[in-house]
Specification:
Shape: globular
Number of helices: 10
CATH superfamily: Bira Bifunctional Protein, Domain 2
CATH topology: BirA Bifunctional Protein, domain 2
Structural class: alpha+beta
Order of helices and strands: HHEEEEHEEHHEHEEHEEEHHEH
Radius of gyration: 20 Å
Distance between the termini: 43 Å
Number of strands: 13
Largest sheet: 8 strands, mixed
CATH architecture: 2-Layer Sandwich
Number of domains: 1
Length: 351
């Protein structure tokens, strides 16, 4: 079904043919005053609400449980190895050093051992980097962990995306059209009846060549640059999976295949990587070996090793950056337009 023919239930369509953000985040001290009079932020709240309800509906139908997890942790999942490009946020709580959660993926692995079908959440994540066009230091994560391996989680990511996009298109097609200039990108996903395109990291590197703008060479591993992701999408189309990265470039908790490649995948669309997925180690000895290989101190992950030793289980999971997803949906290039209440590390912003 074409998006143009979908019934629209949103009660407050845009008042103009174009919908654009006011850029009020550039002055954080007065942002809230401008935002309160901005149609952009009113519609953004509508979209966030629908995305949340669609997410709950999708997982409820599959008997995957929502977990109420804390936002503090003693075991960060980032930085988590040699190839990490993210910094944790350390805070002091009543004299005890701890971290604000960069992800509660480890918590979801814990919940997987309580819920046969898996667990999920929508919750904030905190990172130590400064915000820029594609990064927020506080953003929302849609994450899930399910029994199975990489293929199973890739299949469920694709089903989840189609479900959420269909719900958003049904309720907010005029908003999407006004912001993005059309609905072609939405229709392209919803009308596709086959699985999304996949290529391995080695195939991606061979396709891109040795151009340092696209592939970054480190000592012992390689990574794609943002420009490299964009070039791959230009050549092969949006919604492109790149799988089986160099093992040292991904977190220690990603399992490896028989050839030593990581059992992981990044889904590229819109600004680039929007979804990251991977298969986890099954038991404690596998985790210990990975910690040693990645030169990560095992002390903070002792509980994780013990859990896997006592309750071995094959699981895989994913995380989708909600604001990056919305960048694609509304056709915008700056993620800072998608925070209702902006935050910046090292600065107090009210409210």
């Amino acid at each position: 079904m074409s998006v143009e023919t979908l019934p629209v239930t949103t009660t407050a369509p845009p008042s103009a043919t174009e919908l654009a953000p006011p850029g009020s985040w550039r002055d954080p001290d007065t942002h809230y005053l401008r935002a309160l009079g901005s149609e952009w932020y009113a519609r953004l709240l509508d979209l966030q609400d629908t995305l949340t309800s669609a997410t709950v509906g999708f997982w409820t139908e599959r008997r995957v449980r929502f977990g109420h997890l804390p936002v503090t942790t003693g075991s960060v999942s980032s930085p988590m190895g040699l190839g990490s490009d993210s910094q944790p946020v350390r805070v002091d709580m009543f004299g005890v050093p701890t971290y604000l959660a960069d992800s509660m993926q480890f918590g979801l692995e814990y919940l997987c051992r309580l819920s046969e079908a898996g667990a999920y959440y929508l919750m904030p994540s905190f990172r130590g980097e400064d915000p820029d066009e594609t990064h927020l230091c506080q953003f929302f994560h849609s994450e899930a962990e399910i029994p199975g391996g990489l293929d199973e989680v890739i299949e469920v990511v694709e089903a989840y995306l189609r479900h959420v996009v269909a719900e958003l298109a049904e309720r907010h097609a005029p908003v999407i059209r006004a912001a993005a200039g059309g609905l072609g990108h939405v229709e392209a996903l919803l009308e596709r009846s086959t699985a999304l395109t996949r290529m391995t990291f080695d195939e991606a590197v061979a396709d891109l060549g040795a151009d340092p703008r696209h592939v970054r060479q480190e000592q012992g591993w390689r990574t794609l640059t943002r420009a490299g992701e964009q070039e791959l999408m230009r050549r092969h189309g949006e919604f492109l999976w790149v799988t089986h990265f160099d093992a040292l470039s991904v977190p220690f908790y990603q399992r490896r295949d028989a050839q030593g490649r990581a059992l992981n995948g990044d889904l590229l669309f819109g600004p680039g990587e929007v979804v990251g997925a991977g298969e986890r180690h099954i038991d404690g000895p596998e985790v210990l070996a990975a910690l040693e290989t990645h030169r990560v101190d095992p002390a903070e992950y002792e509980w994780y090793v013990r859990m896997k030793s006592a309750h071995p289980l094959r699981t895989a999971g994913f995380g989708m950056g909600v604001e990056r997803f919305l960048m694609w949906l509304l056709g915008r290039a700056d993620i800072r337009d998608f925070a209702l209440m902006p935050r910046a590390n090292g600065r107090t912003i009210l409210p």
